[in-house]
Specification:
alpha/beta, L-arginine/glycine Amidinotransferase, Chain A, about 375 residues, 10 helices, about 25% helix, single chain, Peptidyl-Arg-deiminase_porph, 5-stranded mixed sheet, Putative agmatine deiminase
Length: about 375
């Protein structure tokens, strides 16, 4: 029986594992929102399907689908991908789904049910309503049979943080301190809350995320832990690139702050592709709605190879049809010789405002896996 807890996970011996640690499986959601995804979401669905199949070659995958789409999705995916009916307003499982924490002494895994307000609520949020999204975390935990920490009074998205599994968290001030998330809490109070929930002792703060990121600067486009003490950082040497100043500012911040164990962070630079720019033809195929984020010709969206996904023995990497795709693959292959690098063309996901990391959520392996 799944139990709901209202205490602090860290006090109960739980920590947020690094994403590079062993998984029991991966969760995703099926995209259908036509004011986010063009052409009735069909191109995005093709991209999501390719991501799901790639991950499923390494570990179990579950996809949540709105009821009307269940039969179709079940028919187009192989039996090794579990398909469940799970309603949502959109398909960003990283932010809509629970954050899993693990007790190393017992091997038990539980999930945190954060508050969610569609990246800003009525003050800059990306759509309204988000009522179905708010229930998704609890539903995932019920299906997984994992106990749930009720932390809905605190707004947090999974893409806003990256953990090293040893007490250090990467985050941006732009996102976590934004007044449209937790306006009544000070920086110190937010740090304390994340420490009590995720078992982290130090937050390495970066000032802002990438330009043109509509989530208010999620860290998962800019920087991510590759392992304890090692950070992958999006990078460009082109002074004309829109991210040139931002990545240098981030590198300086990473160099100035040690991790929770007092180590100086080692930084690996990962080349940035050119920004995604919406064309007039693409915009014409996106539905218009008063309560959703507008997309007009010339709208720029951030693109980054940092928005990748670890899975057991593998790593799923974005490609954009960019001249740096091949270089990015070579960099990841050199950095992770023990993992198979699978690179997928994901421009359609980027058009929606995210990428592979944003649409996935790992379940850490516990004592039963």
């Amino acid at each position: 029986m799944v139990k709901t807890w209202r205490g602090a996970p860290a006090a109960d011996g739980y920590r947020m594992p690094g994403e590079f640690e062993k998984h029991a499986g991966t969760w995703m959601l099926w995209p259908t929102r036509t004011d986010t995804w063009r052409l009735g979401a069909k191109p995005a669905q093709d991209a999501y399907r390719r991501v799901a199949l790639a991950i499923a070659s390494f570990e179990p995958v579950t996809i949540g689908v709105n009821g009307s789409g269940y039969e179709h999705v079940r028919r187009i995916l192989p039996d090794k991908v579990r398909v469940v009916e799970l309603s949502s307003n959109d398909a960003w499982m990283r932010d809509i789904g629970p954050t899993f924490v693990k007790n190393d002494a017992t091997g038990e895994v539980r999930g945190i049910d954060w508050g969610f307000n569609a990246w800003g609520g009525l003050n800059g949020g990306l759509y309204f309503p988000w009522d179905l999204d708010q229930l998704a975390k609890q539903k995932v935990l019920e299906i997984e049979g994992k106990d749930r920490y009720d932390v809905r009074d605190f707004i947090m998205e999974g893409g806003a943080v990256s953990a090293d599994g040893e007490g250090t968290l990467l985050a941006t001030e732009q996102c976590l301190l934004h007044p449209n998330r937790n306006p009544r809490l000070s920086r110190t109070e937010i740090e304390s809350r994340l420490g009590r929930c995720l078992g982290v002792r130090r937050i390495v703060w970066l000032k802002r995320g990438l330009a043109d990121d509509e989530t208010d600067g999620h860290v998962d486009e800019l920087a991510a832990f590759a392992a304890p003490g090692i950070v992958l950082l999006a990078w460009t040497d082109d002074p004309g690139h829109s991210q040139y100043e931002i990545v240098r500012e981030a590198e300086a911040a990473l160099e100035a702050q040690p991790d929770a164990r007092g180590r100086r962070l080692h930084i690996e630079r990962i080349p940035l592709p050119d920004p995604i720019v919406l064309s007039a033809s693409e915009c014409r195929t996106i539905d218009r709605a008063a309560q959703s984020f507008g997309r007009t010709p010339g709208t720029r969206l951030s693109a980054s190879y940092i928005n990748f996904y670890f899975c057991n023995g593998g790593l799923i990497l974005p490609a954009f049809g960019d001249r740096r795709d091949r270089e990015a693959h070579a960099r990841f292959a050199a950095l992770f010789p023990g993992r198979k690098i699978v690179q997928l063309y994901t421009r359609e996901i980027a058009l929606g405002g995210g990428n592979i990391h944003c649409i996935t959520q790992q379940v850490p392996a516990g004592n039963r896996e």
